[in-house]
Design brief:
The complex is a heterodimer.
Chain A: H1 2-10, H2 19-43, H3 52-62, H4 64-89, E1 104-116, E2 119-133, H5 156-192, H6 194-209, H7 212-226, H8 233-261, H9 264-272, H10 276-313, H11 324-329, H12 334-339, H13 345-369
Antiparallel strand pairs in A: 1-2
Chain B: H1 6-9, H2 11-26, H3 28-36, E1 69-84, E2 90-105, E3 109-113, H4 120-127, E4 135-141, E5 147-149, H5 155-161, E6 165-168, H6 182-192, H7 201-211, H8 228-240, E7 246-250, H9 258-275, E8 278-282, H10 286-292, E9 295-300, E10 303-309, H11 310-315, H12 320-327, E11 377-381, E12 384-387, H13 397-409
The chains are: A mainly alpha, B alpha/beta.
């Protein structure tokens, strides 16, 4: 073999090596090759290769952080979607909009002026009095209300669970819609290029030029005037947030595809006669998956926060319906902020947990799906 | 519109929808792998006995009665626009391939050689219609005698032909998709073009891999786990899996080290013997081309300057450019003093090629007429063509001697 290699590389003076000798060496080399191969097949102890799916899963679960993230997300989903029925089993019957109207003694304070020797003194004292009221609002955390009640006498813990449904649903649906729209439009734009690209990217530019907040305020008023019932507004909200959100993803996808399109393995697809849709969705999209996952997981947290902003502006879920963002934004007065942290800290914590959890899982997935990562 | 309190009642439905969408979006890639990795025999020893041959050898392909030529290229031109005026009118072209003609016999190999930038790769890709052909014709004849004019076919009509014409890339690192397993890479085109029934794809791919010297347990591995030589084998397996008749090898061994070069070339030769494939072998490595080719075409700046059987070109190089090219090959004998005829100057720009014979700026036999008229292809012996004024029968002796005189003076 070595001799042959030398011949081949150094070959040079053309007349020096005769045709016959060449074929002879070639044949020898060939049989060597074949023998090697057969031996391998026969004697190779067959060992089980991990399938790619199992490899991805194994890598994912090997990373501690991504497992933590997964646990966080699963816990949130269980809390939001299975929490109320489980609570009912344990006798925790508060619903989303149930107002606690038990009669309670409420301590009220009042400034009274007091007299000394029948003369009014220029001083006031704070005197407490107890009244029986029919609204148990601002209740402290107790067995009846795990996290107390809010200003309307609604159970904060129950509202956290129901609000989680809205927040998580909005987050997921919007992120998925955004990504789908972004991948399709960005993919078309990047793959086909030319005037298609020009038109689509100008649309993206225009979308990015529009100031979002004023437009959202207008939309909020318009939706109000349509008389859309409270809970149905989340669908409008999803649509609006998607419309304003897809352009970033589209631009990123387009950039990536522009780069990938020039790669030789995409040229190879052309040679192989692979259909266009297959080229886009089997060759290009899997290769932008890491970036997509990152943008999705980062976007998810952003959307939950954005929903809070919109709720504050009156475009979100109207009270009495619950969403994490609404719950935070309804506790913006100084008194609630300072004296009733049980009304807003839990909702804030849940948002933090959701955002963190999604980011951990996203990171873990991206690393696990990278075939070049160590096993 | 969904009613007010429906949300709480539809908790489970929502859960389902959310997780469903999640899976679709984030796990579509995993799902794809799942789908492709769902195959019956995981153990290569349990190979299906009936499905080992798959018609991969030429005995089953009936090449006896097939037409002699597989590819006839006539005056093929591939010009790329380099500058455009304000109104989109093209002002200048880069003439990458500028009138190339050759024929390729079925089951034979033609080697295309030339220095970097002479248009070898472009020629190969043009024939495969990776670019739209500017001018000329390239006629591919399949084994039943049906002729296809590659220059005029539409994209849609081209697709079925993709199984018959294949390309092996120069760089085995960038030409394999990094996120697909070896089995998926080789099997993809097989699936798309229905080369074998669906349930046999796994066995078929294993058989192709075996023929290309790849072990069965590589099936689920990713390209980055392999060395350059094995990656090139994967590339070859991918090209061969669709049972092509003509494979254009675009410098398939240039990126490999020498011992691997030998293996890959022998593999190509073996496959040619077994499957009756024709090769168009593009390379700048003369020893490799000489070894594998039946005939050789030498390209310079988008034109073929000399063409003939391997023996003709190697033993009787006639064009000054071919001579210079061959003299530049290093000699492994330390006692033999090599004195390569170095070509002076750079390869001229194909956007602005020299007038007359394109080689005249670097040719040591350059005559007056070389810079004026383009030399025609002349047959100097049977099947040996040269495009050079030196071989013109009407050539004036005085003209030549004056050139030689000039040379001596210089």
């Amino acid at each position: 073999m070595e001799e042959f290699n030398d011949k081949l590389t150094n070959a040079a003076p053309v007349s020096d090596i005769s045709e016959e000798r060449q074929t002879e060496t070639a044949l020898v080399a060939d049989t060597e090759l074949v023998q090697l191969r057969d031996e391998d097949v026969e004697q190779k102890v067959y060992y089980k290769e991990l399938t790619p799916t199992r490899m991805v899963l194994r890598r994912f679960f090997r990373s501690r952080l991504s497992v933590v993230g997964l646990v966080m997300i699963v816990a949130l989903f269980v809390f939001a979607f299975l929490g109320p029925p489980i609570g009912r089993v344990f006798g925790y019957n508060w619903g989303e909009t149930d107002v606690d109207r038990t009669k309670v003694l409420k301590r009220y304070g009042d400034w009274i002026s007091y007299e000394v020797d029948g003369e009014k003194v220029d001083k006031y004292a704070y005197q407490f009095s107890y009244t029986e009221v029919e609204l148990n609002n601002y209740a402290a955390p107790s067995k009846d209300h795990i996290l107390g009640t809010d200003v309307r006498g609604m159970d904060v813990f129950a509202r956290l669970m129901y609000g989680g449904r809205v927040s998580l649903t909005i987050g997921f649906v919007v992120v998925i819609l955004e990504t789908l729209l972004g991948v399709i439009i960005g993919g078309i734009s990047g793959y086909f290029g030319g005037w298609v690209d020009q038109v689509l990217m100008r649309i993206v530019d225009i979308l990015n030029c529009i100031p979002t907040l004023p437009l959202l305020l207008i939309a909020s008023v318009v939706i109000d005037s349509w008389g859309v019932p409270g809970q149905a507004r989340i669908y409008y909200l999803m649509v609006i947030m998607t419309i304003f959100g897809w352009s970033g993803t589209a631009r990123m996808v387009r950039g990536q595809i522009l780069y990938l399109r020039e790669q030789e393995y995409i040229v190879a697809c052309e040679v192989m006669g692979i259909p266009t849709w297959r080229r886009i969705f089997m060759h290009l999209v899997p290769n932008i998956m890491p970036q997509l996952i990152v943008s999705m997981t980062l976007g998810l947290g952003g959307i939950i926060l954005y929903e809070a902003t919109l709720s504050y502006l009156g475009l979100g879920i109207p009270i009495p319906y619950a969403a994490w963002g609404t719950m935070i934004s309804s506790s913006t007065d100084p008194i609630t902020m300072s004296y009733y942290p049980n009304l807003w800290i839990p909702a804030g914590l849940l948002i933090v947990i959701a955002v963190l959890g999604f980011n951990f899982v996203g990171d873990g997935l991206r690393d696990a799906m990278d075939p070049k990562a160590r096993k | 519109m969904i009613s007010l309190l429906s949300l709480s009642q539809q908790a489970s439905v929502w859960l389902g929808v959310i997780f469903g969408l999640l899976i679709v979006a984030e796990f579509c890639y995993i799902g794809y792998i799942l789908y492709t990795s769902h195959r019956k025999p995981r153990n290569p020893r349990q190979k299906n006995e009936t499905a080992t041959e798959f018609g991969l050898t030429d005995s089953s392909r009936n090449l006896e009665n097939a037409p002699k030529y597989i590819l006839n290229v006539r005056d093929l031109k591939q010009w790329f626009p380099v500058s455009k005026s304000m109104f989109g009118k093209v002002q200048a072209y880069l003439r990458a391939v500028d009138g190339v003609s050759f024929d390729l016999e079925r089951g034979k190999t033609i080697g295309i050689v030339g220095e970097s930038g002479c248009g070898k790769t472009t020629l190969g890709r043009t024939i495969l219609r990776l670019y739209d052909i500017t001018e000329g014709s390239a006629i591919y004849t399949d084994e039943n005698g049906k002729e296809y004019e590659l220059a005029k076919l539409k994209r849609k009509e081209l697709r079925p032909l993709r199984t018959q014409l294949q390309l092996v890339f120069q760089d085995p690192y960038s030409s394999l998709p990094p996120r697909m397993t070896v089995g998926a890479i080789i099997g993809e085109a097989v699936k798309v073009h229905h080369i074998v029934p669906k349930e046999q794809i796994h066995d078929y791919v294993l058989e192709v891999m075996r023929r290309c010297g790849l072990q069965p347990h590589y099936y689920d591995r990713y390209p980055h786990e392999f060395s350059g030589g094995q990656r090139q084998r994967i590339c070859i397996a991918r090209a061969l899996a669709v049972k092509p008749n003509l494979v254009i090898c675009d410098e398939p061994v240039s990126a490999l080290d020498v011992s691997i070069q030998a293996q890959v070339i022998n593999l190509l030769k073996k496959l040619q013997r077994e499957m009756g494939i024709s090769y168009m072998f593009i390379s700048h490595d003369l020893s490799v081309v000489k070894y594998i080719s039946d005939s050789i075409a030498v390209m310079y700046l988008g034109n073929i300057v000399e063409m003939g059987s391997t023996a003709d070109i190697c033993g009787n190089a006639s064009h000054p450019y071919t001579q210079a090219l061959f003299s530049a090959v290093p000699v492994p004998n330390p006692h033999r003093k090599a004195k390569p005829e170095e070509l002076s100057g750079e390869l001229p720009s194909p956007a602005n090629p020299p007038k007359g014979c394109k080689f005249h700026t670097r040719c040591k036999y350059c005559m007056e007429r070389c810079s004026e008229s383009v030399p025609e292809m002349r047959e100097i012996s049977a099947g040996h063509f040269v495009a050079c004024h030196l071989f013109d029968e009407n050539l004036d002796d005085a003209e030549v001697s004056s050139t030689e005189h000039n040379e001596q003076e210089a």
